[in-house]
Amino acid sequence: MHLYKKITFSIAVLLLMMTFFPTIAHGAAAPLTSSADTPTTEVIQDVVTTVEAKVLKVNSNSQQIIPGTDTSSDRQSLEVEVLEGAEKGNVVDFDNDYVVLKQGDLFYLTKTIVGETGQTFYSVSDPYRMNVIFFCVALFVLLVLIFGGKQGLRGLISLIGSLILVLYVLLPGILHGYSPIFISIGVASLIIIVGSYVTHGFTKTTTSAVIGMITTVAVTSLLAYLLVHASHLTGFDTEESVYLNFDTRGHLDFVGLLLGGMLIGFLGVLYDAAIGQAIAVEELHHVAPHLSRSVIFKRAIRIGKEHIGALVNTLAIAYVGVSLPLLLLFSTSHAPLMQIINKESFSTEIIRAMVGSIGLVLAVPITTLLSVLILIKVRSDGLNETLQQEEKQLEEFHHHH
Fold first, then answer.
1. Burial class (CB in 10 A: 0-12, 13-18, 19+), 118
2. DSSP string covering 49-103
3. How far is Cα 343 from Cα 180, in angstroms, rounded to an integer?
4. How far is CA 280 from CA 132, 283, 284, 307, 339, in A?
């Protein structure tokens, strides 16, 4: 059996094992919200329900000053109809200071019954956005199928598989108390395996890219672990982390969760870089089978350098875009620049961007080297005079450019 077939078989076994992981995890570990952790003191909880509703009438619009600040906000008096649930058809009036709505708008209405007093409050949870979301998804799928064809369809299947792994393996594993960093490495590797073989098929080229990506993830994970602990990041840089900590009663490892998020976050660009390098090696060897491993490695690295330049910029700008409100917030601060950068919310984003960028850079030489070793047979006659001349010309070309 050829080496790549053995590797493919091993990967298939790993895939099957990981596929059944949620069932194993569910039986092996107790949920974080087990009855053993339930406080013995009886607490009257608030009753909160959220249902779809429709604005029948906007009774008034006004501006109000937020208490304790000099910032104004919109305030509305709304008359709305409940569209689902036990109170379907009921009409309620309440004041809304969250997002401006108009007559006919759909939204999600939250009803809160205070446990201690029994008082009832209504508020706007979120505007109804599902129609826009469905349109975006449908347009994306349509364009992928039109311009991507069969390969685009494979990509969509790979995307669905990745989402399934995140929803049914990664999240349940973390919530059941498994180490976020280790389960993130496993799920990241599985996403790489599923995405690569579904999209590109079971070939030696795909296998070399898969091994390169998994190796890069392992190296980047170690680096991320060292950086996060050296900088004393806690993982509580967002409100979501704080709320999640209360919901899980402090049982989650938020440092590990931060590390896992870093790894999952840069998989997209990692996949792009690794597959590109593996295919570059394959194509160079196909058009010039007489070239040695060293020559093909150098020329593939030359291609990879251009790829790195484009993708690193793309990755950094993507992180800036996500963190734009944070950047604007700190730009209005009068604190010294070093103090601003040193804050956890800011330094977390910088380290996250650097970890992803470093992993991307490492993916190029690692995947290229592995692809050269797997895809190209060893020459038995060594480099002849023609190859030596080609290498010399290549070095002179790089020197002048």
1. exposed
2. EEEEEEEEEEEEEEEEEPTTSS-EEEEEEEEEEE-SSTTTT-EEEEEE-SS---T
3. 24
4. 39, 5, 6, 11, 45
| Region of poorest pLDDT, from 218-227, 253-262, 360-369 | 253-262
Q: Bridge-partner residues for 122, per DSSP?
A: 111
Give residue-wise pLDDT tens across range 82-125: 999 889 999 999 998 888 899 999 999 999 988 778 888 899 99
Q: Which two tokens stand for residue 261?
A: 């998020």
Whole-Å CA distances, 358 to 140, 186, 191, 216, 337: 30, 20, 20, 10, 24
Sheet holding 120-127, edge to edge: 91-96, 72-82, 47-65, 106-113, 120-127
Distance, CA of 42 to CA of 51 (rounded, Å):
28
The mean pLDDT of the chain is: 81
Please write down the HEC assignment for all residues of 175-236. HCCCCHHHHHHHHHHHHHHHHHHHHHCCCHHHHHHHHHHHHHHHHHHHHHHHHHHHCCCCCC
Residue 260 CA: distances (Å) to CA of 112, 166, 194, 347, 377:
35, 11, 19, 17, 37
Q: Report the phi/psi class of residue 219: left, alpha or beta, with left for phi > 0 and alpha for psi in -120 to 50.
A: alpha
Which DSSP category does 382 fall into? -
Domain 47-130 has CATH 2.40.50: yes
pLDDT in tens, 336-346: 878 888 888 88
Domain ranges of the chain: 47-130, 159-400
Amino acid present at 23 = T
Token code pair at residue 368: 């290229």
Architecture of 159-400 per CATH?
A: Up-down Bundle (1.20)
Neighbours of 365 (CB within 10 A): 17
Residue 156, amino acid: L
CA dihedral 214, 219, 222, 227 (to 10 degrees): -120
Do 47-130 and 159-400 agree at the fold level? no
Cα separation, 360 vs 212, in Å, equals: 11
Task: Copy the structure tokens of residue 62.
Answer: 């006004």
